Amino acid sequence: MIFSSAFFFHCLVSFFQINVDQFIEILKSFKPNIAQCLCDTVPSGESCKRNRKSVDRTLKFLDELLECRKNSDMLKSIEILGSVEGGDSETERVRCAVETSKREVAGFVVEGIEPSSQNWEELLKTCIKNLPSDRPRFFPGPMTPDHIFSALECGIDVFDSSFAYEATRRGCSLNLQCSSKRCKPELNHTNDVTEKCKATQSKELEENISENIKKTRFEMNIANIRYKEDFSSLVIGCSCYSCTNHTRAYIYHLLETKEMLAEVLLMIHNFHQYFSFFKKLREALNNDTYETFKQDFLRT
Ligand SMILES: [Zn+2]
């Protein structure tokens, strides 16, 4: 069967298009337990017409996918998550959430809301208010712990781990212990990037860097020369493989010589820190100590 819905994607080298048939072929090859329906994400600031179109196209793709799923036992074994789109239009967000809820989906992914944008929490709450609470609500994308607290309070249930991945790509080590055990601001890389920004005077770099600065409260830039002869672990007291076997100086050396092992060790540590943060968060929610945990964690 040939369907009309298709979305364009861009990867590192080019653009490509995926229609429903091709998406189903991908699902059949990978056989995941769960898959998010493809969607048309629009950035904030787009016209009402464009926001409406994003919802129409997203729902159409979902309907065609679910129609095809009815006739395939293999596809029936894959749970489908519906995507909630609509740009920054509250009307379209509500329409998409309500319409997606009517479909046979296992959960919802709220797409296209940047935690750095204005009124993101209000928009997120609008989506959540119109989604049933008996199915999980996902909020994908890299988020600092303070954004995670906010999204959680809006009603989000599930997050991904792309923040840990992005920190690793920046050559950074996460420290997500409570505030008293975190490095002081002068030891993280806020100063490094600010200096780099002043030196280059590039507008584009300035914008990228100002975004990064927001994330650096929980990071140390291990590629900084100050760690060349620092023989302590990435985070003192961390029980991960990288911290119990290697030093900041060794990982600095690996980053300096562009050894792939640098990212492997940083990734092990960053995942450990990120997953430990979520473990403590779940415990705080279960023990009714969420507010204390949050205040203690965010204290500067
Ligand atoms: Zn560690």
From TrEMBL:
PANTHER family: QUEUINE TRNA-RIBOSYLTRANSFERASE ACCESSORY SUBUNIT 2 (PTHR46064)
Matching SUPFAM superfamilies: tRNA-guanine transglycosylase
Pfam hit, one: TGT
Any one of the GO BP annotations: tRNA modification
Alphabetized NCBIfam families for the sequence: tgt_general
Highest taxon above the source species: Eukaryota
Full protein name: Queuine tRNA-ribosyltransferase accessory subunit 2-like
tRNA-guanine(15) transglycosylase-like domain sequence ranges: 17-299
